[in-house]
Amino acid sequence: MAPRRTACRGTLRAGVSLPIRLLIFGPASYAANSTEYIFDSSVTGDLGKYGLKIPTAKDGISINVGTEYREEKFKFDPDYIFANGLQAGGAPSKAINGGLHVWEGFTKCACPSPMTCRS
Asked: Of 7, 16, 57, 63, which residue is 20 to 30 A from 25 by alpha carbon distance?
């Protein structure tokens, strides 16, 4: 009688989902991008050159007028592991895609102090 041979053909392919395989074999990662654009412009003038001054002062009134525009954007894109808090010691981190736009205008005026008065 010939010896009986048994062949093992089973592997652990089935039943392990992609998230579990990523958790076991791959680290958590994310991509983040932040951008900022700034535009700033102003004009300054001494109005004393045009006769605008306080009668008791030797210096004239100075004025500054300007504007500023600022735009900020931020994008955070985590992978599956990072987004669901499956990394060691981590909490879920949801994706972020946002930003803001700010317009600002300003006017400044400098009047002479009593120390610059005529004697």
From this structure: 7
Q: Is residue 12 domain-resident?
A: no
**Cα gap 19→28, rounded to integer Å:** 11
C-alpha–C-alpha distance, residues 97 and 77, integer Å: 8
Residue 68 domain flag: yes
CB 110 within 8 A of CB 61: yes
Q: How many domains does the chain have?
A: 1
Q: Which residues pair with 75 in a beta bridge?
A: 33, 97
Query: In this predicted structure, what is the pLDDT of residue 110?
Result: 86
Strand partners, 69: 39, 103
Query: In a 3-state reduction of DSSP, which class is residue 25?
Result: helix
Please tell me the distance from the alpha carbon of residue 18 to that of residue 85, in angstroms, as a whole number.
16
Compute mean pLDDT per 10 residues along the chain, 119 residues long, and list them.
49 59 69 95 90 78 94 93 77 91 94 62
